[in-house]
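Quick one, tokens below. Sequence please?
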């Protein structure tokens, strides 16, 4: 029954774009997922520099999560210098990381960026710190999402988001209000909701099931999936959230197809200091770009910010500031591992938005010299690829839950 409830509703054409869910499932499963998984394992994309010690700028910190699974394993200097990963020694020297920073030259950001020169910023090996359910929940976690939705979704105070246990249920109906908004503001809400759904899916799919002999066992938790996404349990809300996940996937997919010309230039290197590895990483990335361009039902962002120039400009700026604020809220997440993945996925989405709003600049890039009009830092590139990798994984995990629910019937 649950299966029919969630997946009967989760079908057909998405709102605000001419694309159906089944086409996205097929495209993701057969074209994108296997390649993006491979790309995320390469040295350039597996190390992310992050400052997990920045104080929360909005409220007094309510202490860090003491659950051991909240802990992030940093990449010690020894690991950076001599780290052995499966098939032998890593080529990176500490100097290579410093070189990476020299390659970066950034501007107009949708995200609050960590100061990479801060002594608190550290390299994290993402493969050693997978995103999964850590036990971090309750008022502290709710407060973060509450703050994101209530203060950053262009929302008047009288309208409460459904299923927010911290908000009284009064005022105008949420969806009546949402449907009355202009496309841009609806899109903003859907992106945040899609990101929330994606993160929840990762937690359901990588849940701590039991510990035997002190060894944890992680895997899919069908009961948790039902609690978060079943229409009855969520008062009809679950399938909407999952549709927003697909919408977010389309937006980031669109950004990847738009940014391809930036990477196709010979002047752009995925530099780690190992020439052979770098060339292979770039070839795989370009292959993924070719796949994204072959998808025939892209979201058309031209309909956004298409009003009069002045209005469009101020709306875009409002969009950027709201989004920047959300990236600052990620510094309020009490669990380090959740904070790491929250910051990375927010920065990935911020980078996707930056790309979609820079189409002209990307088209006018010089072939053989660094660009002045549009530039991506290594951090933004790593975040963009890994954030899209997480969405690709979410959609794949959704297929797995479909199978598991069929079996439990």
């Amino acid at each position: 029954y649950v299966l029919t409830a969630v997946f009967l509703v989760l079908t057909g054409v998405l709102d605000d774009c001419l694309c159906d869910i089944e086409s996205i499932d097929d495209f993701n499963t057969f074209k994108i997922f296997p390649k993006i998984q491979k790309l995320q394992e390469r040295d350039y994309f597996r190390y992310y520099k992050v400052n997990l010690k920045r104080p929360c700028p909005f409220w007094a910190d309510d202490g860090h999560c003491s659950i051991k699974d909240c802990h992030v394993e940093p990449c010690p200097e020894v690991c950076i210098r001599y780290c052995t990963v499966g098939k032998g020694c890593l080529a990176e020297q500490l100097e290579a990381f410093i070189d990476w920073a020299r390659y970066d030259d950034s501007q107009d950001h949708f995200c609050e960026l960590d100061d990479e020169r801060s002594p608190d910023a550290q390299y994290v090996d993402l493969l050693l710190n997978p995103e999964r359910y850590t036990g971090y929940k309750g008022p502290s976690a709710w407060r973060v999402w509450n703050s994101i939705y209530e203060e950053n979704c262009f929302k008047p105070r009288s309208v409460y988001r459904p299923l927010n246990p911290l908000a009284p249920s009064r005022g105008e109906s949420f969806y009546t209000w949402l449907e009355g908004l202009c496309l841009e503001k609806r899109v903003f809400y859907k992106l945040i909701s899609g990101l929330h759904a994606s993160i929840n899916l990762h937690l359901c799919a990588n849940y701590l099931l039991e510990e035997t002999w002190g060894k944890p066992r992680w895997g899919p938790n069908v009961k948790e999936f039902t609690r978060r996404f079943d229409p009855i349990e969520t008062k009809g809300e679950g399938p909407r959230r999952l549709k927003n996940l697909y919408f977010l996937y389309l937006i980031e997919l669109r950004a990847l197809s738009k940014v391809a010309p930036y990477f196709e230039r010979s002047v752009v290197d995925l530099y780690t200091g190992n020439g052979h590895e770098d060339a292979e990483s770039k070839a795989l990335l370009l292959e993924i770009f070719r796949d994204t361009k072959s998808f025939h039902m892209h979201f058309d962002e031209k309909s956004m910010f298409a009003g009069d120039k002045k209005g469009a400009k101020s709306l875009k700026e409002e969009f950027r500031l709201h989004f920047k604020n959300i990236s600052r809220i990620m510094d309020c997440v009490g669990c380090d591992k959740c904070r790491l993945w929250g910051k990375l996925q927010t920065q990935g989405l911020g980078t996707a938005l930056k790309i979609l709003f820079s189409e002209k600049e990307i088209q006018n890039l010089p072939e053989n010299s660094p660009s002045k009009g549009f530039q991506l830092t290594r951090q933004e590139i790593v975040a963009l690829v890994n954030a899209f990798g997480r969405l690709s994984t979410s959609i794949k995990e959704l297929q797995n839950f479909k199978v598991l629910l069929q079996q439990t019937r």
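Confidence is low (pLDDT under 50) at residues 78-94, 103-107. Strands lie at 47-51, 121-125, 207-212, 215-219.
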